[in-house]
User: Fold these one by one.
Assistant:
Number 1:
Amino acid sequence: MTLSTIGIIGGGQLGRMLAMAAARLNFRTIILEPQADCPAAQAANRQIVAAYDDPAALDELASACDVITYEFENVPVSAAERLAASLPVYPPPKALDVAQDRLTEKRFLNACGIETAKFHAVNSQADLEQALADFSGQGVLKTCRLGYDGKGQRVFRSSADSADGVFETMGGVPLILESFVAFEREVSVIAARSRHGEMRAYDLAENVHRNGILHTSTLPARVGQETQEAACEAAERLLSALGYVGVIGMEFFVMADGTLIANEIAPRVHNSGHWTEAACVISQFEQHIRAVAGLPLGDPARHSDCVMTNLIGDDIDQVPKWLAKPDVLVHLYGKTEARPARKMGHVTQLLR
Ligand code: AMP
């Protein structure tokens, strides 16, 4: 196999784990990230320390790499397009465009025949009041762009919850009001599509969030075979529609009757797929590297039940306890400062 170089935009833990998987298959990696000595660069061959949209840095990255990928969905679309003019960029920039705006995302999912919560675009206080009235005073208000881990969100539980001045307090930016989904549980599927259109999906993970941040992913999810198949089918339709290459994470709400409502997509490896490094022969990270490098996809079969737990902030202090347990894979991200709500690492415990 020829030794070639993969450029990764973004220097966080996902980039770090991609770089580690790439190294095992003889690829070199270069990270583009403004923060020096970032988690990804610690495990990569080289870092270009510059803003994601710095034209000179992008051109330098393009000239040093054979293919480009990214580890977060807020890579400026213009940067991805600039790179795509001279070398392959996977997933395609169109996937960024769709995932960066919750309205565009929901419309795209619906156009693929994938059900989401009902929604209204909210561009003023009057829009908000009208949208809430349509949903009987209930709903989840989110910023269209740049919201993650529950940030930039406001829940309206009943018409008793006042909406006074809320458009302003949310920053006067474009918003989306989603109908409140009374789900039974939350699950996600990690799926992949190769350069040749081949597709694979991992088993559904059941996810529990705390304070808007993923806390645990448990395998198997408590869903029936039909629900698993419906998630795979939705992922396949989405990946085909995007002409996608790489790994994608799709989060769903599961209703009491087992039907699925798509919540959001992440055009990258995903936190709820970290369990794959312990419970599958081919992890989501290797699957992504295989896809973007034009190699055959690996078998996503799961050999064990497991629980992945995120180590957030001070949870990092529990590492000695986790290290002492059998059947636990500990993965730390090389972040020096343990700020609250900061993802410091994760552990996956096999259940057998
Ligand atoms: P998100 O940032 O869209 O992933 O939302 C964070 C969390 O808020 C989700 O994992 C759900 O637990 C909850 N949530 C988001 N949207 C809705 C909705 N439309 N109805 C009910 N719960 C929601």
Number 2:
Amino acid sequence: MTNYPTDLKFYINGHWRSGDGRAVHRIINPATGEKLAELPLANAADLDEALLSAARGFEIWRATDVNERAAKLHKVADLIRQRADAIAPWLTMEQGKPLAEAKGEVLSCAATFDYFAEEAKRSYGRILVRPTGQRSLVLKQPIGPVAAFSPWNFPVSLMSKKMAAALAAGCSIIAKPPEETPACTIAIMQCVVDAGIPADAAQLVFGVPDMVSRHLIASPIIRKISFTGSVPVGKHLLKLCADGVKRTTMELGGHAPVIVFEDCNLEKTLDLAAATKYRNAGQICISPTRFYVQQGIYEAFTKGFAERVSKIKVGNGLDIDSAMGPLANDRRTPAIEALVEDARAKGAKVLAGGARGGGAGNFYQPTVLSDVPASADVMDNEPFGPVALIRPFATFDEAIEQANRLPFGLAGYAFTENGRQANRIADALEVGMVGLNNFAISAPDAPFGGVKESGFGSEGGPEGLDSYLVTKAVHQY
Ligand code: NAD
């Protein structure tokens, strides 16, 4: 079950490619530090070939009957479900997350392809009211070939969101998933190929990220960029896109606040918070991170949270007992260590964890910091790791002021049994997504995206399809 594929390849112009003197990237298992395989990286000639192929693919795919497009996207979903048990261990081996989470992520890709297979049929325009004999139409058309860059924390689901929506809209797509976690994305691409999506319509490349993005964005063939990743890289890509006035969707970082009011269901809130914070070792852009807890329940909350977190079993994600795996790469461990040490030095209390785990892998213990001073770096910078920060608050206005103080605005959460207070907080949080009394805010039919420096545009829902469509007004007399 766990045999990792060593013949990694990328897919352009209808062919799987490797070798031929191309540079390679070493794939490392983050739980063990062992080398798994070498990944071939596309060169400039490969990218030029992919661009010409994408231009052809757009003409072929946009002209394909929408029912046929939908049927092929459903077929991709079926194949993903059939192969999920084989793909999930590869995801765990190259990314680190526990096997159950990996399987859930793979199955979520099938749900995404199914959703967009249906949504493909709903690229509706409208007819404007005009005097008899005149007609004005508003049409929606696919924007053109897309370049999509997705990160290593959810390698298959984030690539699938972009690919399914672009293909549903009638666009062709060149996907560049992360180089750290290729086998699972190659397996999803194989499902796309086997489902009969035309070779030119969907391609998969790996490479040096800066080289690939500069090359693709500079091409007049590419009409839309979709990126999920860090705020600095998003800003860099936006500047590159400005030259060609390219349409973009930017899903960037967050630093999600969680406002816990005294009237919440405390036990339920603690259970949900401790289970959700350490999913994927906290490497989630919507991970609950800044817990603002009302004074009356502050002691009970911090005690109950630390008790639950200290029981989380950390280990290799392939081990059925592991509730949390390693961090995905060796950049993350020193980054988390530095943020925790800075907070500790400035007066934060370490209630759980606070140190690396053992072994050769990139392990860091599930960590809870309370009374974290506002001056700690981690209060301003997304830790993107297994670290929860807890601070007390007194009033509703104070909680909102703290929650909204950062330049990011992706997700925000609140726990209260008072419906009026829930409405007020949902209105006041400066974020793109709000979870009230729960953390489940991602679904194929729901828009997913942020405000402020967390980016713009949505993935998922009708908004996700719309982001690959352009609007054309036709006025007929
Ligand atoms: P990074 O900023 O170097 O890279 C983030 C992602 O962007 C990676 O997937 C990377 O391959 C890609 N990337 C980097 N430079 C690129 C370029 N020039 N063109 C195209 N793609 C490029 O950092 P990292 O070490 O990989 O991750 C660290 C930080 O990134 C985290 O702390 C987190 O804040 C953020 N991140 C966010 C998400 C998300 O879901 N929003 C996912 C992964 C990482």
